[in-house]
Every structure is written in structure tokens, then in C-alpha cells.
Write a structure and sequence with these properties.
By secondary structure, this protein is an alpha+beta fold. It has two domains: about 5-235, 3-Layer(bab) Sandwich (Hsp33 domain), CATH 3.55.30; about 240-290, CBS domain Like. Helices cover about 30% and strands about 30% of the residues. It is built from nine helices and 16 strands. The protein has helices at about 20-30, 35-55, 110, 140-150, 185-200, 200-210, 210-220, 240-250, 255-265, and strands at about 5-10, 15-20, 65-70, 75-80, 85-90, 115-120, 130-135, 155-165, 170-180, 225, 230-235, 235, 265-270, 275-280, 290-295, 300-305. The strands form four sheets. Strands 1, 2, 8, 9, 10 and 11 form a six-stranded antiparallel sheet that branches. The chain has a six-stranded mixed sheet with strand order 7-6-3-4-5-12, covered by helices on one side. A two-stranded antiparallel sheet has the order 13-14. The longest helix is centred in the first third of the chain and has 21 residues, at about 35-55. The chain is elongated, with a radius of gyration of 22 Å. About 35% of the residues are buried.
């Protein structure tokens, strides 16, 4: 069955958001040719972004981004999701595979390391993004997301995430987010804790039953109302395009672009979000506007006609020079 998400309400105040993300994590692994530890880390984060989208977003055009800036060999990790069921993401080094932990599980925490977890909400159509961050505590993703929700959103949450692999093949992946709403009782909170403990490993539960059956187990002892009439389809989907590939070449200087034309007749652009490769022929380079402003010291692009500004007046360039832009 394709990846999908369901929402429900257990008792009087326990919100449940659950997703089977097996197929989309398979897609992500194939796109990035990732090793097992990197696959597990990315799969958990992709799933977490989809679950979070149903907590922190209101508009179908909004997006939520999870960014792990850890000091581990993974070199950072990011996932971006929306209420439409689409998600994309990547890790800094997809070849990372560490020795198994003492308990025989993949060492995702060791791959991520210590650092900062940032959650960014981008609001449609042109609202400024809002971000907040917490320290990475375990690097295992689920625990860090739960801590973020408790600290930044003031919501008690249980977060279950898992990716089960055989060799480097994704067998099962998914996640569940359970949250205490204002009407939740102490008895319901205790029941949730008991049910989560009794479930064991999420991927084992998903391998032996459907997503709905897992949700029923997690809501045992409480009335369960499924709020999604039809499960929401989920998919790994990027927003890259030929036009964006061309736009990315604008960050190279005119001299560098001419060198690409002279030596190769164009340029291959690889999307870091999804691994898609696109060839941009040299004749299309002429479509890049020459109306641009670059740093006089280091050549960094500050402004180009037709592109959103990535720097602002009086900000500091990477070389230390103060940015000066036209009105």
C-alpha cells in the first residue's frame, strides 16, 4: 500500500496523527543512494515533518521545515513538508553508515551528533517564515521532536518514529504523534503512557498490522474517533524545475558561466533536495539577467533582477563587507 496518513481523537483530549511512510522513504533512499544509517535518519525526519505539518500549519500552502544542525558525520539533515502530503529532504552525507549500537539498532544519534534542531514555518502566500530552535538532546529524531514540542509549543507529546531495513532495503517506515489537548485527563495521559510502552517498537507493530490497527492499540482503553474519512496519500515530491536549475547558475559569475559553456557546452545541475539531475545547455545561459549586483570584494551575488533577494541592505557579506543594494 502507498504511504498514507490518518488523524484521530482518543478519549476527550488525545490527538493522534499517524503515518505509514514506507514507500516514500524507499523513494528517498533510491533518490539519494543513501547508506542504512543515513536512510534511517532521513526517513525518521521526513516522517516527523509530515506529522508536524498537521500540528503547526493552518493553510494548505504553508510548509514546515525540520533542520538538524548536528556535529556528527551526517553533516546536517533537513526535511520540508506540507498539508498536501508532499515531503522532500536530504542529509549532508548520504554515505554515512555507523556500526550498530550495543542494542543492535542503527546509530542515528551518533550520526546526527550534538547541535541545534530548528523548526521553520513558512506561511502563504508571502508571510515571513517563523522559526524556533532547541538543542539536540539525543539525535534520534523522535525524542528531539517531542522535546521541541514541549519547550517551544508547550504541548506534551509522545513521538514514535521508525525505519526498519533489511540490508539497505526499506521494509517498513512510519510514525505516530500523540498530543495532550487541553481537555485531556490524567487518566487518559496515564493510559497513553501505558499503551506506548506496551506497543514496543513501532516498525514491528507496523510489520504485523495495519496503520489503523496500530492506532487502535495506542488508543486502547479510550474511545477512538477517526477524523480522516479517507487516508491522506503521502509522497516524496520536490519542487525543483528546469527554470530553478537555470536560476541556480546565476550565483556563478558571468566569467564562470562562460567557462562552463566553453569547456562543456553547458552545465549539469543536481537538486540537493531530491537528487534530480538536469542539463542546462549553454544557449539558455543568455536568459540569465545581467542586471545584478555582486560584492566588489568576493563576487558573492547580492541581487539579480527577477530573483528574490537573499541578502538585505546593511547585512554583512560572507567576506565581511556591508551589503549595499539599490532602492
Amino acid at each position: 500500500m502507498s504511504s498514507h496518513l490518518i488523524r484521530g481523537l482518543a478519549g476527550d483530549g488525545i490527538r493522534i496523527i499517524a503515518a505509514d511512510t514506507t514507500q516514500l522513504v524507499k523513494d528517498a533512499r533510491e533518490r539519494h543512494s543513501s547508506a542504512p544509517t543515513a536512510t534511517a535518519a532521513l526517513g525518521r525526519t521526513l516522517t516527523a515533518a509530515l506529522l508536524l505539518s498537521h500540528v503547526v500549519l493552518k493553510d494548505s500552502r504553508d510548509r514546515v521545515t525540520i533542520r538538524f544542525r548536528g556535529d556528527g558525520p551526517l553533516g546536517g539533515m533537513i526535511a520540508d513538508a506540507g498539508l498536501d502530503g508532499s515531503v522532500r529532504g536530504y542529509v549532508g552525507d548520504p554515505d554515512v553508515h555507523l556500526p550498530l549500537r550495543e542494542d543492535g539498532k542503527l546509530d542515528v544519534g551518533g550520526a546526527v551528533g550534538q547541535g541545534e534542531l530548528e523548526i521553520i514555518r513558512s506561511h502563504a502566500p508571502h508571510g515571513d517564515p517563523y522559526s524556533s530552535s532547541v538543542d539536540i538532546v539525543t539525535g534520534e529524531v523522535a525524542e528531539d521532536i517531542a522535546i521541541y514540542l514541549a519547550m517551544s509549543e508547550q504541548i506534551r507529546s509522545a513521538v514514535l518514529l521508525g525505519v526498519y531495513l533489511e540490508g539497505n532495503n526499506v521494509v517498513k517506515a512510519g510514525g505516530v504523534l500523540m498530543q495532550a489537548l487541553p481537555d485531556a485527563t490524567d487518566e487518559e495521559l496515564g493510559q497513553v503512557e501505558e499503551n506506548v510502552f506496551g506497543l514496543g517498537q513501532l516498525t514491528e507493530a507496523l510489520r504485523s498490522g495495519t496503520l489503523l490497527e496500530v492506532v487502535n492499540r495506542l488508543s486502547s482503553g479510550m474511545k477512538l474517533d477517526i477524523l480522516t474519512k479517507d487516508a491522506l496519500p503521502l509522497r516524496f515530491a520536490c519542487r525543483c524545475s528546469d527554470g530553478k536549475a537555470l536560476d541556480s547558475l546565476a550565483y556563478f559569475t558571468p566569467e564562470e558561466r562562460q567557462e562552463m559553456i566553453d569547456e562543456d557546452g553547458g552545465a549539469e545541475v543536481v537538486c540537493h533536495w531530491c537528487g534530480q539531475k538536469r542539463w542546462v545547455p549553454g544557449e539558455r545561459f543568455a536568459e540569465i539577467s545581467a542586471n545584478e549586483i555582486r560584492c566588489p570584494d568576493c563576487g558573492t551575488l547580492w541581487y539579480r533582477e527577477g530573483q528574490a533577494r537573499t541578502v538585505r541592505e546593511n547585512e554583512t557579506c560572507s567576506c565581511g563587507r556591508t551589503v549595499t543594494l539599490p532602492a
